[in-house]
Amino acid sequence: MDLLKMRESYQRERVMLCFNGPISRSLIEEIGKALRNYLDTQQAAPAAAMDVFAAYIEMTQNIRHYARRQGYNDEQASATVVVSQDDQGRYRVSAGNLVQTPDGERLAATIDDLARLDRAELKAAYKRQLRQPRADASSGAGLGLLDIARKSSRPMHASLQPLSDQQSFFSLTATL
Questions:
Q1: CA–CA separation, 51 and 58 (whole Å)
Q2: Which helix (H) or strand (E) is 131 found in, with range?
Q3: pTM for this model (two decimals)
Q4: What is d(CA 98, CA 74) in angstroms, rounded to the nearest whole number?
Q5: What is the mean pLDDT of each run of 10 residues along the chain (176 residues)?
Q6: Superfamily in which the 3-175 domain is placed by CATH
Q7: What does the CA dihedral 99, 145, 86, 154 come to, rounded to 10 degrees?
């Protein structure tokens, strides 16, 4: 492993935080604290910092819950999380994990559907989901994803890369 090349790549991509490995509740909290502290030292606007933090929490908790529902071991439950900035100073929160291919296809389709909605349509979808009974929350986009989509400055982007016949690597990026 060439740490210098990794460092140079991270600097070129303006990576502020990067994690790869099994993700637990306590780890989500600790990385979240580190992220908040970093954003504070960079003097990020409070609203932007909250949006980045909320997207990070939503994405990592979704990964953790999915891995637990699937009964994944530590290696299968690994997540890759990156928080960076683009050339215009917007924050990008990206997270990826192993999924069963049909689950990944459904989620990617949901993200694609959300990406086609304008701000007013996202707001209406959020309000509709808010009124849904809790048991129905698993169908369609959840409140968390809708909230990220509403706060994003660009449409969220999802990708699915096949690893085997049954499993794929799902990636989601939100620009805030």
A1: 10
A2: helix 119-131
A3: 0.91
A4: 11
A5: 94 95 93 93 91 96 96 94 95 98 97 96 93 60 90 97 97 98
A6: Histidine kinase-like ATPase, C-terminal domain (3.30.565.10)
A7: 120
